[in-house]
UniProtKB/TrEMBL annotation:
InterPro entries: Cro/C1-type_HTH, Lambda_DNA-bd_dom_sf, MLTR_LBD. This is XRE family transcriptional regulator. It holds the Pfam family MLTR_LBD. CDD domains: HTH_XRE. The lineage of its organism: Bacteria, Bacillati, Actinomycetota, Actinomycetes, Streptosporangiales. GO terms for molecular function: DNA binding. It comes from the Bacteria. Residues 7-61 form the HTH cro/C1-type domain.
């Protein structure tokens, strides 16, 4: 994609007018118009400012630079690289600190990067093929040979996951994510979730040996990351939605053990 087309497409996707983008980037609407029509070739610093003003993910910022003929600014380092040792240590610390509750680290496609022992204990009884690297947590959740048979509110939870993937692909188009969403949608019955009050968050109602568990999730990212790999990591933590679930997890999974290790794909 040429720079002019790439800029116009990303601005439109961000629902910004040329004037809006010009104000954010500290330039003029005329200059934006000239760049989008191909009449003006921006300098490297201008492309960086435009990418920042559009609040693009680091991978897309690099892509915009490439479309303008410039080298990428943001590195993409393998998680196993010694340069990211501090990141791996931080992830292991957070995963272990979240015990006795389950937590995972995934990449931009939902592939499992690392997990703690509580996640393995709670979600490990699935088809071993689904756990073969790169295991995908979205597929683990909705595949018939994953944890889907144990999810008591499957239709409701499936809609939650599919909507999340849909929002991701709308904000940041990605062929693999779009394909994954299409695959997962084929596992979901067409029946709509039951009506009723959902409370403050959609819970995951999971059948277990201790009865029904109710879990809610939080997602954490590295907000100040300047490396593509680090910026795309997500830490998803599961928290008990009631006292009974908290007691079960504390009593059966316990605080012992630790994480499975960051970068253990």
């Amino acid at each position: 994609m040429e720079f002019s087309q790439a800029l116009r497409e990303r601005r439109t996707r961000s629902r910004l007018s040329q004037l809006d983008l010009a104000i954010r980037a500290g330039t003029t609407q005329r200059h934006i118009s000239f760049m989008e029509s191909g009449r003006s070739a921006p300098g490297r610093s201008m492309v960086v400012r435009l990418a920042e003003s559009l609040e693009l993910p680091l991978r897309e910022r690099n892509g915009l630079l490439l479309s303008a003929g410039y080298a990428p600014v943001y590195p993409e380092t393998d998680l196993g690289d010694p340069a990211l040792a501090a990141i791996r240590t931080a992830l292991d610390h957070i995963l272990t600190g979240h015990l006795p509750y389950p937590a995972v680290v995934v990449d931009r496609h939902g592939d499992l990067v690392a997990s703690n022992t509580a996640f393995t204990a709670l979600f490990g009884d699935v088809d071993p093929e689904l756990l073969a690297p790169p295991a995908n947590v979205y597929r683990l959740a909705l595949h018939p040979r994953g944890i889907a048979p144990r999810i008591l509110n499957f239709a409701e939870w499936a809609v939650h996951i599919l909507e999340r993937l849909n929002q991701e692909t709308l904000r940041h188009p990605d062929e693999r994510l779009a394909g994954l969403r299409e695959e997962l949608a084929s596992y979901v019955p067409r029946s709509l979730p039951s009506a009723g009050h959902l409370g403050f968050a959609v819970p995951l109602r999971l059948r277990s040996e201790g009865g029904e568990l109710r879990l809610i999730t939080t997602v954490t990212t590295f907000a100040t990351a300047v490396d593509v790999t680090v910026a795309e990591l997500k830490l998803e933590a599961f928290l008990p939605a009631d006292d009974r679930t908290a007691a079960f997890l504390s009593g059966n999974l316990g605080p012992e053990g630790g994480s499975a290790g960051a970068g253990s794909r």
